C-alpha cells in the first residue's frame, strides 16, 4: 500500500453523481491535497491555475474514467469461505447448515486473521472503498477484521455480531456477557482513533436476539454515538418466526422499534416484505436500507421493491451480502438490482407501474446512495470539494477484460462517448477494468 501523495491532480474524464437522476460527466481535473478534494474544474482552468503548479499530475488516457469508489452497505466477512455454496437452500436452513458452523471457527484469532486479510483485499480489488461488515460472535476475532481494514487502508464500519437465543449449533452468547463484549469492542475500536474505521453495533436479527439484548445494544449504540445494523423482512418464514416469538407485535419493524433499534443511524438489510405502515415507520425513524439483490434471489427470499422504498422516502444503498450473495462485487449488485427491478416491472399488473432502474440510477446507489445510507455522504460517495478522495480509475478496454474495442463508433459528441464507456463498464466490467483504487488519497490498488 502506497503512502498518500500530498498534492496530486487527476486530469481526464470524470464521472460522478449527485442524485438518483443526476449524472455528471466532466472533462477536467480533480486536485487532491492530503487526501481531500480541494478543487474541481475544467482543463482550461487547470492550464491557467498557478496554485496547482507544484501538484503531481496523473493524466488519464481517452479510454479511462475516474469515478467514485463503490460502497458496500452489507456483507458478512466471516462467510467469504462459503461463497458459492449452499445457495439451493432457503434462508433459515442455509444459516443452520452453512453459516453458524463456519462462523463458530472465528474463536480462533489466527484463523480470523488468515481470512480477513483476504476479504478486505478482495473488496478493494473490486473497487469497494467503503464496506459495512458483519463480523462473527467473537470479540478478538472481529478485532482481527478491524486490524485488516486498517492494514489495507479500507474505509470500514465493523460490527461484532450479537446473538443470545439458543440454536442447535451452540452459536450464541449469554446476554450479560454479550453486552459486555460489545461495549468492549466499541471501546477498543474507538481507541484506535483511526478516521477510516468505526464500530457498528450489530444484533444479527430478531430471530437470534431477544428484546433484552436488543434494548441493551441500542443503549450502547446511543451512548457511544455508533451506527447500528441488522436484517429485516428478508424471508417469509423468517417473518413468520419473528412474529411467533413476539406475539404482541404486529410487524417485524415493531419488534425492533420496541427495543429502540430504529433510528437515523440504523441501516437494515433486505426489507423485501415491508408493508406500507412499516415503510412509514422506518422513514419516520430515519432508517436506511441495504438492498441485497443477489442473496434475495439465490436464497429465493423474494424480489425487493426498491423503487417503492425510495418513493416512500427511504434511503437505499447496495450490499453484496456474501455469502448469501454469490459475488463480492458491487458491480454485480448493480446489475442484479437492475434485473430485480426489471422483473418487478414485468410482473406489475397495477395501474401505477414503477419503472425498472437504469444504469445511471444504480451507479448512484453504488456510490453516493450507499454513502448516504451509511451517513457518510459528507465524506465520500461523490466528487465534491471538501470530501475525501475515494476513487477508482477505470480502464474500459483493459487488456484481458470483458470489453472489446471495435473499429466502430456510435454517433454522438464527446459526452455521449464517455456516457457509453461508463455504461459498458457498468454492464460488462469487472476487477480487471479497475486499474487503480484510492482511499482518502492513498493508492490501495494499482
Number of strands: 17
Looking at the structure, what is the overall shape?
globular
**Range of strand content:** 15-25%
Q: Largest sheet, if any? A: 9 strands, parallel
Q: Which residues form runs of ≥5 with pLDDT under 50?
A: none
In round numbers, the mean pLDDT is: 95
Rg is 22 Å
Please give the alpha-carbon distance between the first and last residues: 9 Å
Helix content: 25-40%
User: Structural class, judged by helices and strands?
Assistant: alpha/beta
* Distinct helical segment count: 14
Question: Keywords, please?
Answer:
446 residues; alpha/beta; nine-stranded parallel sheet; four-stranded mixed sheet; 14 helices; 17 strands
Description:
- This protein is an alpha/beta fold and 446 residues long.
- The chain contains 14 helices and 17 strands.
- The strands form three sheets. Strands 6, 7, 8, 9, 10, 11, 12, 13 and 14 form a nine-stranded parallel sheet that branches. Strands 3-2-1-4 form a four-stranded mixed sheet. Strands 5-15-16-17 form a four-stranded antiparallel sheet, covered by helices on one side.
- Strand 1 and strand 2 form a beta hairpin.
- Helix 3 packs parallel to helix 4 and helix 4 packs parallel to helix 5.
- The longest helix has 18 residues.
